[in-house]
Amino acid sequence: MILVFIEHKNCVLNKTSLEAIAAAQSIGKDLSLKVTAVIPCDKDCSLAHEIAGYDLEKVIVAKSEKLGTYTPDGYAGAWEHVIDATSPKYVVMAHTYQVRDFAPKLAARLDREVVGDCIRYRVENAELVLTRRMFLGKLDADISVGGDAPYFITFQSGAFRGDNAAKGNAMTETMEVTVGDIRMTPEGPFQEAKASVDLTKSDVIVAIGRGIKSQENIAIAQQLADALGADLAASRPICDADWLPIDRQIGSSGQTVAPKLYIALGISGAIQHIVGMKNAGTIVAVNKDAEAPIFDIADYGIVGDLFEAVPVMIEEIKKAKG
Amino acid sequence: MKQVANKDAVLRISSDEKWINESDVAMQTNESDGYALEEALRIKEAKGEGEVIVCTLGPQGAKTVIKDALARGADRAIHVVVENSNKLSPYQIANAIAEAIREENADLVLTGLQSDDASYGQTGVILAELLNIPHATIVIEVDRSSLTGNIRIKRELESGWYQWFNYKLPALFTIQSGISQIRYASLKGIMAAKKKEIREITASIADFPSAQTIQKVYMPLKTKETQILGGGDAKKAAVELVERLRNEVRVI
Fold first, then answer.
1. From B8, B91, B137, residue closest to A113, measured CB to CB
2. How many domains are contained in chain B?
3. Domain of residue A282, residue span
4. Any chain B CB within 8 A of the CB of A101?
5. Residue B7 above 90 pLDDT?
6. Which residues pair with A155 in a beta bridge?
7. Domain-located, residue A189
């Protein structure tokens, strides 16, 4: 069987879990394995009913008073109990920040490791071969799992589509789980000062990366943005260097956007950035490095110096607009 | 701290198709590991006492990472020498590091969030489990005023959310890039580093039956047809692009 992790906060679903369900269903179909969803919670989770509406064998609410707020110790302990009780072949999760926090610990406790952040799989001799990105997205690697089950696999956001998760009617079960000491004390989650710029509503975005080289050079990107009526955004290194405020950051730790047009200037296209913008209608990449992974998802590419290309772009746009 | 291929390096796949040719690329300190060192130095400075020990697992060539760390202010170093470290799985790496540092009984173990080459993102977490200490990942701030047997750290969650957690020491944290500005090594630091201890450990790497194995690395399959414009001339490409944006994408 396959266990799939359902992530939630106060019984509100993290929607990437639907992608994990779709992934687990797909693997289950290929390997003739049944899929059971697992929801760690401190109560009879109200989410169980919603998840039972998918094509699953069962929904298990792993229940303990220690699971009210997420902690890595709490979740690893609860999962250890469920795995012990169910002996799954695969444990499938979405590669979220929470999963990155507890899944390797859980696996290590069972003398296993996680094949993490996978983008696809294939079946070879009735076993999975997983593909994951390496070298900041520049190369793909096919990975085989070793040893005995269970195997822990996490999939990158967008590797499967949540709305492809098949509907059905599963039974639900509450499993009281024993959880050991929780060695950390969480405070309440919070958002930093509300993002003053909501890039999710932008139609056109001009984004800059390390290729912009200095803070002074941002002016030229701003001029291009002004000419296009676009908003200026950035990849993480630019915000880390305080060249632009954090509310301009696109990617897994920033905003996720889907504008009509996204122009990436000097952005190599690390996975963490790409997950935040790959659903843009049209993607333009300007980069000196022809091998930069951003070109894999671009509709139009300019391989060359952005400081040569951008002034001409500004001029041509102004001409076109009259 | 790990040594990885330079971020901007053009990568060539090795002849066994299981890694890259590291001999023809510039190498550097893994980005988030550099931030982990910086945070360790700042914590020591805030506390006014203590020792920062750098641990690197990798080939002899990774000494440059250690020397740089010592020049920035680390007090001494442990080098777990493994020539073919890219063949190791994350558990094997964490296990070798755990054996190398266990007897140091560190109050705090900091690692980078993930490496920029293999990007397993789990060495630190497994290390915490093997050392039997609690951990947190994706730490973006350390409350340096909290250091009295307890420590308060801020984790980055998704979509602009954060959360503070409190830990009793010892603990392990994986540090997110950008936690603070990384200092440069001073000339004085570089000179002082020459006298600092680098202890070499020749690790015997234990077999790990559940190790994941890289079968093959290759260029990513294209998901999109990309039109490369201008034929190498950036200015010509810019003209062509604006023409496309106007007539095909219709945003102008």
1. B91
2. 2
3. 199-321
4. yes
5. no
6. A94, A118
7. no
